[in-house]
DNA sequence: CCCGTAAGAGACGGTGCGTCTCTAATCGGG
DNA sequence: CCCGATTAGAGACGCACCGTCTCTTACGGG
């Protein structure tokens, strides 16, 4: 009577069950028993694949959220290019809810690094394009400056998580624009603007 | 035979015991039973005062780490003033070890806000002093700009915690100087430097 | 067709939270 | 100085859930 699942199929079912449980209850109240029951399997099947509850959750998140950015946008303006990347990050950040993260910050931080490992290259390319266009005089800004908007967006994200606050799309848009217009672009123009003295 | 402690005395003993347990094992492996045993009392005495393990830990941290900055430094230079504040923060950050924080981020974030509630006022005063000295043309920088170094230092702190990395004093000093010299001061000079156009 | 692998189901021990219970020390009021 | 209210000190208890172990049985490769 009962048809047994195996391999890929079974694993996908489990990870989707785990993701559903996280969405419903958050990580803290995710139970291995609950996931097994929802996937209609036994705990041993889970423990055969992942060493503990945390790694199961991480696998479920990875399974649901793929890599972030793969290639650099090229809209013809530094502001728009960077804005595109930040919007992607902010959109993604809305999946990282407090319920998902609490109790799981270190693991998810590592995962986020893996997911967005292409970011530094993308930013470098955006800056090179801007330099080629003449928007800025050179693309080799200090690391800290080039990555500044990314760091600030991540900081805002962590801050909301830790305050148990949800991020609305409108808020995210405002924050992202603010970071670019009142911090990043003025700074970049001061360091490498076409009208500034060449260093 | 046994002499019983009460009130303040008992409470201080418990909080010191809790702090000691946190130092030894970290929050995650802090047990209420352990604290009670170390303080030579019963669990009920703890639960009579704090509703759960997390609040006990928060109380212990608050008991050990007092408020951060109370009044603005005034060294005669914007850079040195701000550097002084950042050094205080970085020094304090070295108490917020990964072991202490894991599993307790939201609670400690709230506590940190309480502990450093004087910061915004201090920063505002530092900027006013710089304006009075003529280092900058005006002190009403955008909120995000004025607080930028604080946010970046906090971000670095959270990042180390989440990566289970300790912060050495030398590293902290380097990061703090980098934030001021490659990000904050260039930006402030661009927005309100004496040689920039008055807006 | 047969055997090794792994699924499905659930029992089990262990840890540690938060509650409850009980005795007796201490404090404050009269 | 005594008496009653309070609460310290000690530990048992129920409960939730992790991670391990055991057992039977379906499946698939050779």
UniProtKB/TrEMBL annotation, chains A, B:
Q: Which residues form the HTH tetR-type domain?
A: 8-68
The protein's GO terms of the molecular function aspect are: DNA-binding transcription factor activity; transcription cis-regulatory region binding
Q: Does the keyword Transcription apply?
A: yes
Record bears the keyword Metal-binding: no
Name the DNA-binding segment ranges: 31-50
Q: Which UniProt keywords apply?
A: DNA-binding, Transcription, Transcription regulation
Q: Which PROSITE patterns match?
A: HTH_TETR_2
PANTHER family, per the entry: HTH-TYPE TRANSCRIPTIONAL REGULATOR RUTR, TETR-FAMILY TRANSCRIPTIONAL REGULATOR
State the name under which the record lists this protein. TetR family transcriptional regulator
Q: Which species? A: Paractinoplanes tereljensis
């Amino acid at each position: 009577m009962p048809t047994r699942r195996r391999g890929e199929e079974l694993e996908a079912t489990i990870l989707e069950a785990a993701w559903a449980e996280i969405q419903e209850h958050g990580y803290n109240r995710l139970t291995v028993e609950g996931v097994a029951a929802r996937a209609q399997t036994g705990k041993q099947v889970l423990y055969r694949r992942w060493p503990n509850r945390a790694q199961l959750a991480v696998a479920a998140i990875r399974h649901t959220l793929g890599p972030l950015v793969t290639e650099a946008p090229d809209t013809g303006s530094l502001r728009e290019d960077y804005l595109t990347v930040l919007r992607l990050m902010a959109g993604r950040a809305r999946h990282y809810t407090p319920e998902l993260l609490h109790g799981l910050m270190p693991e998810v931080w590592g995962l986020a690094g893996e997911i967005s490992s292409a970011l530094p290259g993308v930013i470098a390319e955006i800056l090179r394009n801007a330099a080629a266009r003449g928007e800025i005089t050179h693309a080799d800004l200090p690391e800290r400056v080039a990555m500044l908007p990314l760091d600030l967006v991540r900081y805002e994200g962590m801050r909301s998580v830790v305050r148990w606050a949800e991020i609305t799309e409108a808020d995210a848009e405002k924050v992202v624009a603010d970071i670019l217009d009142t911090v990043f672009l003025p700074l970049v123009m001061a360091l490498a603007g076409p009208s500034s003295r060449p260093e």
